[in-house]
Amino acid sequence: MIDVEDLIALVRNYNPRTNADLIRRAYAYGRQMHEGQFRHSGEPYFTHPVAVAAILTEQRLDDATIVTALLHDTIEDTKSTYTEVARLFGEDIAELVNGVTKLTNLELSSAQSKQAENFRKLFMAMSKDLRVILVKLADRLHNMRTIKSMRPEKQAQKARETMEIFAPLAGRMGMQWMREELEDLAFRVLNPEARNSIIRRFITLQRETGDVVHKITADIRLELEKAQIEADVYGRAKKPYSIWRKMQEKDLAFSRLSDIYGFRVICKDVADCYRILGVIHQRWRAVPGRFKDYVSQPKSNGYRSIHTTVSGRDGKRVEVQIRTRQMHEVAEAGVAAHWSYREGVRVHNPFAVDPAKWIASLTERLDEDDHDEFMENVKLEMYTDQVFCFTPKGDVIQLPRGATPLDFAYAIHTRIGHSTVSAKIDGIRVPLWTRLKNGQSVEIITAEGQRPQASWIDIATTGRAKAAIRRSLREEDRGRFVKLGQELARAAFDHVGRKATDKALRTAAKMLGLPDETELLAQLGSAELTARKVVETLYPELARSSGPEVDVRRPVVGLSDDQQFRRAKCCQPVPGERIVGITYRGQGVVIHAIDCPALEEFEEQPSRWIDLHWHTGRHAAVHTVTLDLTISNDAGVLGRICTLIGEQKANISDLRFTDRKPDFYRLLVDVDLRDVEHLHTLMTALEAETDVAQITRHRDLSRKP
């Protein structure tokens, strides 16, 4: 394990003004909190946070981020609390540690709808402070480097998650080195045979042709010396996963792959970049269609570089990247370059992107309601490259590959997108679903009175366009949302003994920065604003008091007085979760959790859906939830579990065994709970119990609603 003074020395290398005392205190506190905890490998657990902090020093990050790394598991895995961390290390660091804790907890579910919700929360956490995700990525990198000590099934799960979410996210943030290492570490777990095969072929190739990288590097240096250009030249073989992916995409054998080597030329200024490009193209033949100029058209994460592929020695294709030193710093650190330090001061790099602007491009789609659409667009925009198209005036619009004229229109302005009727590409009229290509000139034809169509959702590909189209379509339901908002406001105000008068709502709207009470009611009805928030704004003292319990006979808002209702047995929703009602002829309304897979069968029957919300306030502990527990088969274990559930003020209403083995029992336990917070508290307490091997919330789709 890295000693605290060695860690401080790593920080001092780039930030001599570091607050060494703060790091020492965080190191000592983290070590004390994790005392007695061990990793799967048998090492003391605290070796992990220290290693994560060391990874972040490589990115030259500030003291707050380094301290967050040392403390990132304390709130989740030890007796430490947010309040204590805030008292000892400040509110800023406590917020960062809490943000990392929330991200860690997101990984517990792999269901598609849950994963979509995870992405939402991931991006929301990032939007508050991007350093949260930098710590999380370093945490994942160290876990992947030490993954061999985990169980094989856990290794596979972590590797898939890394390949699908964290590696592309690192790439999207411009941290290409981290993306490549995460991909390679995951590839080693998911397909070790393919990886070893590629490495063996590299060794054979090197034996046959000699050190190609050294030879080509020397060739490039010689040409630059002739042209009297000062620059550093580096070369390397591409990573096994990068090669394997190319083999799969192009359906080629290894022997037929050409550009398996990459070279990087780093120079002083932009003018030298283009001089070097000229030197390389004069000496070697450029491969058509393989030239990209990210210097004049940078990527959204600030990445700038010239890419060209040329036919080098023996006709072998090699990729050459040309960039300045400042561009290289951004290419290595990505969005993290914003926090980089050198010699005690934050580096001002003109090419570093503003994290707030960058994250806005990802959070535009956070209000997407459709889980599949949300996931598809997030993954699309994280994995794909960019296309650059021109307006008739010559302005450049940057879009993800696969974008359509509709995306182009919304990228210019939402008003233009809404009024689009058709488009021309290079002067020729085309359908709105046409895929755009690099360098095309696009003209959008608009008409007054045009409104977005429902079919546009399937045509648009960018999060910005989809979100704008959905917002417009929702405006047509504004009247319905206002009506529901009135009911929610009335119920919330009644709960604290007040009346939801027009004047009260106008005052609340003004305090919340909304134009009027109608907008406030519409946002209440569309769940963009909670009734609790409105009440807290006007009556903070009343809102904080517990008040009377919610009437157990009418716990939801949105039903008429004569409508009967019941909770769906398949998903067992509890107060605090988003819900929806499905009407059944002669049987009333069945309340489902919004992410219940059973809702799929009603997708084509929108008339049966009812917007519902739980009443704000304290609910009685009468909402049954089934927990799936795996516990040790030892004397007294079941008794301790039952006692623990009772200590959490939860009543066991049923208990049944589903599997009995010599060393463990698996059982389903029905517990009566107040709300989702009560559920989370109970599951956390059970998960911390040594004799509980696994705990999940049981959902049985075979049970009728």
From TrEMBL:
GO terms for molecular function: GTP diphosphokinase activity; guanosine-3',5'-bis(diphosphate) 3'-diphosphatase activity; kinase activity. GO terms for biological process: guanosine tetraphosphate metabolic process; nucleobase-containing small molecule interconversion; response to starvation. Residues 626-703 form the ACT domain. Coiled coil: none annotated. Residues 45-144 form the HD domain. It catalyses: GTP + ATP = guanosine 3'-diphosphate 5'-triphosphate + AMP. This is GTP pyrophosphokinase rsh.
